[in-house]
Each structure stands twice: as structure tokens, then as C-alpha cells.
Amino acid sequence: MTTQLYSSLTAPSVNWRLLKSASQPTRVGILSPGYNMARVSYIIPSESHQYTTLKRVPFHRLERRGSFLDNTALFLNPSVDLVHTFNMLPVNGPRFVTSFELEMPRYLESAKLWQYRFGNRLMASDRCRGLLALSQIAGKLLKQQFCSLGMDEVARKIRVFRGAVLPSASPEYEKTVPSSGPIKLLFVGGQAFRKGLIPTFKAVERLRHGGIEVELTVVSTLAPDEYVTTSYLESTIEDWRRTLTETDWVTYHPALPNLVVRQLMRQHALLVFPSYDESLGWTVVEAGMEGTATIGTRMFAFPEMIDDGKTGRLIPLPLSEQSRWRGLDLDEDSREQARLADDLLIEQGLVKAIEKVALDRALIHQWGQAAYRKMRSTYSPTVASQALSSIYAEALKDT
């Protein structure tokens, strides 16, 4: 209920033990301790609040399509002061705040109009005390949505709370990248094709043909995605798995523990993460925590995490009005054509950025130090805990 909840989130440099304060801490009900990953937490321990895992009526197990039931919770006896959910709106219980990554209410696939109206009523109710966006862009877009619906009272509940990422065992900036030899790039991501593996591979190949010594480490299950590279069949994925395994300048790992990946981040010059679509991009945050800069695409929340030319580089990508890749709004055939064209844009952007680093390797450390400072000041558990305590205190005020 308390310390056991965070047993999977501990790191040698962080004390995640909940402390008892002189006054009674706020009792906050939750369903899960993290962002479906042990390394990332959007609920942070503090002496001012105490977490309790709630039980829900399992109606969501009946759902066959979409996520209306999954993201609409009915709790059993929630004897807490406040509920904090993620992408989820509780039907009953006390006041609540909800963290979200993209849209709210988050009902995927074929959601009905009445379901959206139901979710909107929950957010407009007095029980809803905060809609906490993971990024500025997500908060901005949701505010625009509710203002356009004439629901200014909901728009006023939106604020940014970024959450936290555990620092590694190294409390200070530490970079082990040599000043000579190959430039070692790291690519990390399960759905590798959506995250830009193909243009990354081709860019490295092109750089090597041009005489620049570059090596690539890939950590990925090569899992297919369902909305960017929908044409990729299992045979295509197997071909790429074979290519990565057999290419002498590639080191391929299907999967590694997070602590090992964090160590690899410290040992590589740059993280290459030219993704087509991310709700945030936690890998960029983790790399920065390890003093490693990122070359990514200029889409959605990446410009908030990567200061172009200071903590890494951003590659322009054609975007929609929602600041997401243009191909997401196209039919499957048109989306495939757009992706092939934009793969080339990404490849060219990567080549240009890495050529610059090859000419001035001091950028590896300059960008890495700046990324380290940015991420430690933005996503540290201490900063997040203080912000969250303030959010909870505000949510419990009578209006």
C-alpha cells in the first residue's frame, strides 16, 4: 500500500520511502504506481501525501473494442481524500485529478457520441479538480478543444504536470565517450519502425560510405505498430532482424533491462530517436538524465524536451495542426507514400546533424551536459514531488 507500491521504482541514488509528517498526510487513491513501466512515475511519494491502491469493478473486462470502459472506472469503497488516475475518469468516489498524455476523454476506436458526452460531464463536474497534461502541447490542444465546445470551466482545470524519471546511480554528470574513434549512436524503442529505425540505419550507412566512422547500437523487439507502418508484415520484420544481426557496424539487442540501457546511454555519443509519433518520449528524458543528447524529430512534445542546437538536434517533419506527423490523417496508401518521402527527410536530417558532430566532437559533451541539466531540473523526483503536493493541496480546497 505504501513502500511496497514503490519497490519496483527504487534506484540506489533515490530514497522512495514514504515519510510520515507531523500532520495527517493526504490519502490519495490510485490504480497503478506508474506509466505502465517501472522506470517512469507520474505519482510521486512525499511526506504530505500517502498512496493507496484502489479496487475497481471489473466492467472493463467485458470491453471488446475501444477503451471507454477501460478508461471509465467504478471503484469499490474508495475511502481516500483524493483519487489520481491516468487517462481515466472515475465515475464515483471523492474528488479526482487525472494525468493524460494526448486527448481526454481517451476513448479509442469507435467511441459513441454519448460516451464522449458522458466523459465531458465527469470532467465538468465539481469532483474533477485537475486535468494534468504530460506536456505543454497536450495541455494547449485540450484547452483549445474545450474552449471550442464552450466548456471553459473544463479548460481552466488543465495544467501541466510532467511526472518524473528516476535518476540513475550516477548523481553527477558523467560521460565515458572517447574523443576519437567511431561515433557511437544508440537507438532504443520497441516499435522501432514507427520510431524511425529505417532512416536511422540508412543514414549511418550513408555516413560510413562518406568516410565518417559511425557505429549503431539498436535495442528493440522490432514490434509492429498499427498506425504508422501498417504495411510491415512479419516477413519484413524478420528481414530487418536478420540485417541488424548480420551488419558488422550494428550491435543488436532484442531487449535489455532498463538499468543496462541507461548504462549504454552514458557510453554512447548520442541517442537517435527520429520518431513519427510519441505521446511524450520518455526515452529522450532518460537519455538526458544520463548526460546524453538526442537527435529527434520536431513533432509534438519533442521541442519541449530537445532545445535544438543546445541539448541535441531537431529534424523538421511535416505536421498536422495537432503538431503530429501529417501521415496520421491520411488513408493507408497515402500514409505509406508520405512515410516513404519523410523517411528520406529524416535520413537527410540525421546525416547533416551527425556530420556536424563529426567535425566538432566537443558538441557531444556540450549537448550532453546541457541535456543533463535540463532533464534533471525538469523531471527529477524532488521537483515532481513538490509540484504534485501543491496540486493535491489545491484540489482539496473548497470552492
Main sheet record: 6 strands, parallel
Task: Report the span from N to C terminus.
Answer: 30 Å
Task: Report the helical percentage.
Answer: 25-40%
Read across the widest sheet, the strand sequence of neighbours is 3-1-5-7-8-9
By secondary-structure content and strand pairing, the structural class works out as alpha/beta
How are the elements arranged and paired?
Layout: E1 26-30, E2 40-41, E3 49-53, E4 72-73, E5 82-86, E6 89-90, E7 96-100, H1 113-124, E8 128-133, H2 136-148, H3 152-155, E9 158-160, E10 164-165, E11 183-188, H4 197-209, E12 214-219, H5 234-246, E13 250-253, H6 258-267, E14 270-273, H7 282-289, E15 293-298, H8 302-305, E16 312-316, H9 332-359, H10 362-379, H11 381-395
Parallel strand pairs: 1-3, 1-5, 4-6, 5-7, 7-8, 8-9, 11-12, 11-14, 12-13, 14-15, 15-16
Antiparallel strand pairs: 2-10
Would you give an account of this structure?
There is one protein chain. It is built from eleven helices and 16 strands. With 399 residues, the chain is α/β, with parallel strands linked by helices. The strands form four sheets. Strands 3-1-5-7-8-9 form a six-stranded parallel sheet, with helices on both faces. Helix 4 (197-209) crosses helix 9 and helix 7 (282-289) crosses helix 10. The chain is globular. The two termini are 30 Å apart.
What's a concise summary of this model?
It is built from 11 helices and 16 strands.
Key traits:
11 helices, disordered N terminus, globular, 399 residues, 17% strand, 6-stranded parallel sheet, alpha/beta
